[in-house]
Amino acid sequence: MFSAPSSFAFQPDENIEHGFVRVLGQLALQARRLTQHAHGKISESVHDARVLIKWLRALLWFAGPVFSSSEMNRAKSHLRRASHLLASERELVVMRSILVRLAQKSEDSAYRRALARIANAEDSQQTSTENPHQSLRQAMAILLATIRQFERRAKIKSKWPSCSDRLARAFLAAQKAGKEALNSDDAAQFHDWRKKTKRLLFQLQLTHAVPGRHMARTIKRVDKLQEKLGDYHDCVIAQDRLQKSLPVKVPPRVVRRTVDLLEMRKHQLRKEVRQIAKHIRLQ
């Protein structure tokens, strides 16, 4: 499993165009390795593939002013398709993780057995309907094709954005999304905040290969915020699956209890993200 990326960042004093093309090459290298040497748990390979897609999205967002809207919209559409190919495996991992966590916290053996039945049914349904290895290969093929397209196009572009301007825009977008989410408590608004916070994190990492003390602290706080928002989104996914597409007959009281526990967790997470967001500053 590859880790977060010192090589996926513009280096000090590096020309932006050169850095853009170099990072594209690093993404392509990791995608080819992942396709050729995926092994162990498929969930780990899917996780790595999803991170690569997010990095490419972040890099293309940074370079958005350079390319035409039609080029960017086409790339977004392709990458959405790649993400969709991996979504089922990701949701299964989320569901399994949450059910295990709830079981560990419960002293009720009957409840733990019911959660285990739900987890086993989710696994069985996924095995019968999905081929995650094929989906992984298809997603990486889309990513590589998109990379090749932008490698060619980058060589004929001349005016590139500044790191400070793009970073400021990402920060303001995340800040605005956070205010809207906290004022509404709506799951869709929190999902939008999560995406914009994730984008801000990637922009911080992309533009700060060697962060100073203040920026390192900011990156750490943004990372913690997006992690908590990710936990919130996972609770939403689990609630939705329990209430709409439960693949096994489970007593309604078990479903209600699980949904209530997830709602309590979401309430706690809302309080936590509010506190974290207060302390995030670029300057």
Helix content: over 70%
- The helix tally amounts to 9
Q: List the secondary-structure elements in sequence, H or E.
A: HHHHHHHHH
Quaternary organization:
single chain
What's the main sheet like? none
Task: Kindly estimate the percentage of residues that lie in beta strands according to DSSP.
Answer: under 5%
Q: Give the overall shape, derived from the CA principal axes.
A: globular
* Helix/strand/pairing category: mainly alpha
How many β-strands, per DSSP? 0
Number of domains: 2
Unreliable stretches: none
Distance between the termini: 34 Å
- Radius of gyration, taken over Cα atoms and rounded to an integer in Å: 20 Å
Mean pLDDT, all residues: 90
Key terms:
80% helix, 2 domains, 283 residues, mainly alpha, Four Helix Bundle (Hemerythrin (Met), subunit A), 9 helices
Question: Concise description?
Answer:
The chain has helices at 16-37, 42-62, 69-105, 109-129, 132-154, 163-184, 187-207, 213-244, 252-278. It is an all-alpha fold. Helix 7 packs antiparallel against helix 8 (213-244).
Write the layout of secondary structure elements.
Elements: H1 16-37, H2 42-62, H3 69-105, H4 109-129, H5 132-154, H6 163-184, H7 187-207, H8 213-244, H9 252-278
